[in-house]
Design a protein that fits this description.
Layout (H helix, E strand, L loop, with lengths): L11 H21 L5 H26 L7 H23 L5 H23 L5
Helix pairs in contact: 1-2, 1-4, 2-3, 3-4
Amino acid sequence: MKWNQAFELNRPEIDRQHKTMVNLVNSLETTLRFSDARPIMGELLETLLQYAEEHFQYEEKGLVNCRIQGVQDHLAEHRRFGSQMQAFIHRFEDDDPQAGVELRRFLDHWLRHHILDSDRKHIQAF
Protein backbone atom coordinates (compact mmCIF):
# COMPACT_ATOMS: atom_id res chain seq x y z
CA MET A 1 0.00 0.00 0.00
CA LYS A 2 1.48 3.30 -1.02
CA TRP A 3 0.84 6.49 0.92
CA ASN A 4 -0.42 9.34 -1.22
CA GLN A 5 -1.84 12.81 -0.71
CA ALA A 6 -5.41 11.55 -0.90
CA PHE A 7 -4.87 10.00 2.55
CA GLU A 8 -3.83 13.30 4.13
CA LEU A 9 -6.40 14.87 6.41
CA ASN A 10 -4.31 17.98 7.11
CA ARG A 11 -4.13 17.05 10.77
CA PRO A 12 -0.38 16.52 11.29
CA GLU A 13 -0.61 14.07 14.21
CA ILE A 14 -3.38 11.99 12.62
CA ASP A 15 -1.53 11.96 9.28
CA ARG A 16 1.69 10.88 11.01
CA GLN A 17 -0.13 8.04 12.78
CA HIS A 18 -1.83 6.93 9.57
CA LYS A 19 1.53 6.90 7.76
CA THR A 20 2.97 4.74 10.54
CA MET A 21 0.08 2.31 10.18
CA VAL A 22 0.62 2.14 6.41
CA ASN A 23 4.33 1.47 7.02
CA LEU A 24 3.47 -1.33 9.48
CA VAL A 25 1.10 -2.85 6.92
CA ASN A 26 3.85 -2.64 4.31
CA SER A 27 6.23 -4.46 6.69
CA LEU A 28 3.61 -7.21 7.05
CA GLU A 29 3.26 -7.39 3.27
CA THR A 30 7.01 -7.77 2.84
CA THR A 31 7.17 -10.45 5.53
CA LEU A 32 4.30 -12.40 3.99
CA ARG A 33 6.31 -12.83 0.79
CA PHE A 34 8.70 -15.18 2.57
CA SER A 35 7.71 -18.77 3.24
CA ASP A 36 9.43 -18.74 6.63
CA ALA A 37 7.53 -15.67 7.85
CA ARG A 38 5.35 -17.50 10.37
CA PRO A 39 7.70 -17.15 13.36
CA ILE A 40 7.59 -13.35 13.23
CA MET A 41 4.04 -12.80 11.92
CA GLY A 42 2.49 -12.99 15.37
CA GLU A 43 4.86 -10.33 16.65
CA LEU A 44 4.21 -8.05 13.66
CA LEU A 45 0.44 -8.47 13.97
CA GLU A 46 0.59 -7.71 17.69
CA THR A 47 2.68 -4.59 16.97
CA LEU A 48 0.18 -3.39 14.37
CA LEU A 49 -2.76 -4.10 16.67
CA GLN A 50 -1.12 -2.30 19.60
CA TYR A 51 -0.28 0.72 17.45
CA ALA A 52 -3.80 0.79 15.99
CA GLU A 53 -5.28 0.75 19.50
CA GLU A 54 -3.09 3.69 20.52
CA HIS A 55 -4.15 5.53 17.36
CA PHE A 56 -7.81 4.80 18.06
CA GLN A 57 -7.46 6.14 21.60
CA TYR A 58 -6.03 9.34 20.18
CA GLU A 59 -8.90 9.68 17.70
CA GLU A 60 -11.51 8.80 20.28
CA LYS A 61 -10.42 11.64 22.58
CA GLY A 62 -11.81 14.01 19.97
CA LEU A 63 -14.74 11.86 18.93
CA VAL A 64 -16.35 11.20 22.33
CA ASN A 65 -17.35 14.83 22.81
CA CYS A 66 -18.25 15.33 19.18
CA ARG A 67 -21.88 15.67 18.18
CA ILE A 68 -21.33 14.65 14.59
CA GLN A 69 -23.63 12.04 13.11
CA GLY A 70 -22.09 8.58 12.82
CA VAL A 71 -19.59 8.87 15.67
CA GLN A 72 -20.86 5.69 17.34
CA ASP A 73 -20.40 3.81 14.06
CA HIS A 74 -16.85 5.12 13.86
CA LEU A 75 -16.10 3.91 17.38
CA ALA A 76 -17.63 0.52 16.60
CA GLU A 77 -15.41 0.31 13.52
CA HIS A 78 -12.39 0.64 15.82
CA ARG A 79 -13.63 -2.23 18.01
CA ARG A 80 -14.31 -4.47 15.00
CA PHE A 81 -10.79 -3.88 13.72
CA GLY A 82 -9.37 -5.14 17.01
CA SER A 83 -11.56 -8.24 16.93
CA GLN A 84 -10.71 -8.98 13.32
CA MET A 85 -6.98 -8.59 13.97
CA GLN A 86 -7.22 -10.98 16.94
CA ALA A 87 -8.90 -13.49 14.63
CA PHE A 88 -6.04 -13.18 12.13
CA ILE A 89 -3.49 -13.66 14.91
CA HIS A 90 -5.23 -16.94 15.85
CA ARG A 91 -5.36 -18.02 12.23
CA PHE A 92 -1.61 -17.53 11.87
CA GLU A 93 -1.06 -19.43 15.11
CA ASP A 94 -3.14 -22.27 13.63
CA ASP A 95 -1.12 -22.22 10.37
CA ASP A 96 -4.13 -21.29 8.23
CA PRO A 97 -2.71 -21.18 4.67
CA GLN A 98 -5.24 -18.55 3.52
CA ALA A 99 -4.60 -16.16 6.42
CA GLY A 100 -1.88 -14.17 4.65
CA VAL A 101 -3.85 -13.48 1.48
CA GLU A 102 -6.98 -12.58 3.41
CA LEU A 103 -5.03 -10.40 5.86
CA ARG A 104 -3.53 -8.37 3.00
CA ARG A 105 -6.94 -7.88 1.45
CA PHE A 106 -8.52 -6.96 4.79
CA LEU A 107 -5.83 -4.43 5.79
CA ASP A 108 -5.73 -2.74 2.40
CA HIS A 109 -9.50 -2.34 2.29
CA TRP A 110 -9.85 -1.40 5.95
CA LEU A 111 -7.14 1.29 5.95
CA ARG A 112 -8.37 2.88 2.73
CA HIS A 113 -11.97 2.92 3.95
CA HIS A 114 -11.09 4.11 7.43
CA ILE A 115 -8.88 7.00 6.31
CA LEU A 116 -10.69 8.08 3.14
CA ASP A 117 -14.24 7.65 4.41
CA SER A 118 -14.64 7.29 8.17
CA ASP A 119 -11.90 9.64 9.34
CA ARG A 120 -12.62 12.19 6.63
CA LYS A 121 -16.28 12.37 7.74
CA HIS A 122 -15.20 13.20 11.28
CA ILE A 123 -12.22 15.44 10.50
CA GLN A 124 -13.50 18.35 12.60
CA ALA A 125 -13.26 16.16 15.73
CA PHE A 126 -9.51 15.81 15.31
